[in-house]
């Protein structure tokens, strides 16, 4: 694996599938002086992902890669990443699971943001399950990506209180707001000496 140290900003690619509000916050962060990353590429598996507009608005190259044939899609992506010299992949609402092979072959770091306090509530419908289980808190986690779903090393977590009137929708909104702060912090943490 490439060493992610040194002064140069790390070439970063963001993977999205949907609204891309984390992409938006990461773009904002990447423009700051203190940012250790530059965002060089956005990849989406959906051609109509709303978040793609943030790539356009910021003149960031974007690629849409159809995942009907995962193997073909991943090989295509690996080639693009190599060409663009990408050091870091940030998954941000990317709804596909990357294969072991892809993770092994990518010569850099892959991180993800997940809307729960991992190891609790891996996978989908995190908010429904947290409320159903009468949890007092939920939150979000930035973690390294390994071959098991939502199970890599935890980089940073932030919790939010679940109120008595909480709905999955209100909790998702509350957590998403926190995600926009936590993801940049986690990236700073990875690259701080
Ligand atoms: C976020 O809640 C993220 O944690 C989850 O999917 C959502 C993506 O939101 N993996 P957005 O596309 O960044 O707005």
Which stretches of 5+ consecutive residues score pLDDT under 50? none
Helix/strand/pairing class, anyone?
alpha/beta
Judging from the principal axes of the Cα atoms, what is the shape? globular
Counting DSSP E segments of at least 2 residues, the number of strands comes to 7
Q: What series of H and E elements makes up the topology? A: EHEHEHEHEHEEH
Strand order of the largest sheet: 3-2-1-4-5-6-7
Q: What is the radius of gyration? A: 16 Å
Ligands, ions, cofactors: 5-O-phosphono-beta-D-ribofuranosylamine
Mean pLDDT: 95
The proportion of strand residues reads 15-25%
For the terminal residues, how far apart are their CA atoms? 18 Å
**Most strands sheet:** 7 strands, mixed
Roughly how much helix do the residues carry, as a percent range?
25-40%
Oligomer: single chain
Number of helices: 6
Task: Characterise the protein shown here.
35% of the residues lie in helices and 23% in strands. By secondary structure, the chain is of the alpha/beta class. Helix 1 (21-30) links the parallel strand 1 and strand 2 (37-44). It is globular. The mean pLDDT is 95. 5-O-phosphono-beta-D-ribofuranosylamine (GRF) binds at residues 16, 18-22, 51, 92-93, 113-115, 140, 176, 179. The site of 5-O-phosphono-beta-D-ribofuranosylamine has 15 residues, from helix 1, strand 5 and helix 6.
List the helices and strands and how they pair.
Layout: E1 10-16, H1 21-30, E2 37-44, H2 52-57, E3 61-64, H3 70-83, E4 88-91, H4 100-105, E5 109-114, H5 126-132, E6 137-144, E7 154-161, H6 168-191
């Amino acid at each position: 694996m490439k060493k992610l140290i040194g002064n140069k900003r790390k070439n970063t690619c963001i993977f999205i599938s949907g609204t891309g509000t984390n992409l938006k916050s990461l773009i904002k962060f990447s423009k700051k002086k203190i940012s250790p990353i530059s965002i060089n590429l956005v990849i989406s598996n959906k051609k109509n992902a709303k978040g793609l507009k943030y790539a356009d608005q910021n003149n960031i190259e974007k690629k849409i890669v159809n995942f009907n044939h995962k193997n073909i899609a991943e090989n295509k992506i690996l080639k693009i990443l190599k060409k663009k010299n990408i050091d870091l992949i940030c998954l941000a609402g990317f709804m596909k699971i990357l294969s072991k092979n892809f993770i092994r072959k990518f010569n850099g770091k892959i991180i993800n943001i997940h809307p729960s306090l991992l190891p609790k509530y891996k996978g989908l419908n995190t908010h429904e399950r947290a409320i159903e289980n009468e949890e007092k808190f939920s939150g979000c986690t930035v973690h390294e990506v390994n071959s098991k779903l939502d199970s890599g090393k935890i980089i940073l977590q932030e919790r939010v209180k679940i109120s008595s009137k909480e709905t999955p929708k209100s909790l998702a909104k509350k957590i998403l707001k926190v995600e926009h702060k936590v993801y940049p912090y986690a990236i700073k943490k990875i690259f701080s000496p």
